[in-house]
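Readers of this paper often ask what the protein records in our data store actually look like. Such a record has a labelled line for the sequence and another for the backbone structure tokens. Nothing more is needed to write down the fold, since each code stands for a local backbone conformation. The record that follows is passed on verbatim for readers who wish to inspect the format.
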Amino acid sequence: MLIIGIAGGTGSGKTTVVNKILSSFPAGEVAVMPQDSYYKDSSHVPPEERSKINFDEPNAIEWSLLVEHLRQLKAGKAIEMPTYSYLTCTRQEETVRVEPRDVVIVEGILVLTDPVLRQMMDVKCFVDADADDRLIRVIARDCIERGRTPQMVIDRYEDVLKPMHCQYIEPCKRFADLIIPQGGKNSVAIGLLTDYIDGRLKKAVANK
């Protein structure tokens, strides 16, 4: 199994990179484990306090469950991946069944911060983007998907996203085997990564 980690700041274009990789292969050939699915459940926190949760620090993630699920996939076992709602800041009852595949992508802003998870990765990628571009994408996304006003997003960016990016996310760039500037617009870097995955898949098929 080839395990690829794709990290980068909020709004850097990670999802676009992942989607472009997926579109290059037959459906179901590459499994994806979003870090966002593994946020700790906050249903025990009063609703008025949940808006204060810091989603941009490593402590917000249940790393032990993510690592265990990745180990199960590597052992050839299917998993029930949790789902998380940003609207209620709680883990949902529904799960998503993920079958083991020859390639698994673990994607999220903090996936290179956990040393155990990082050790399991065969390829570590960091999607890089200008801070202004990331902020514009975050404003557009949070206003549409998470019911926030532009001012709420800007305030959160200044108070949480920016300092957490500098403290936790940006330093992880040094762990990356491949840095992808300009996010999903960098067709050359995405092509190199896709070709590498394709080569590994063909090798796996040849060895079966």
Observations:
- The longest strand covers residues 90-98.
